[in-house]
Amino acid sequence: MGSWGVYTAKANGLILYDYMVKCMKELAKAEPDIDALLPWNFKY
Hints:
Pfam families: DDE_Tnp_IS66_C (PF13817). The chain has one domain (about 5-35).
């Protein structure tokens, strides 16, 4: 994830560490739901 992801996550009020962990877990799946990982769609 580039710096744009960090800034966008912060701008959307996400806890950065939790967001990164959730993204890594989801991306490790065989068929990750990429759209759900976008900061403006993200749900804990």
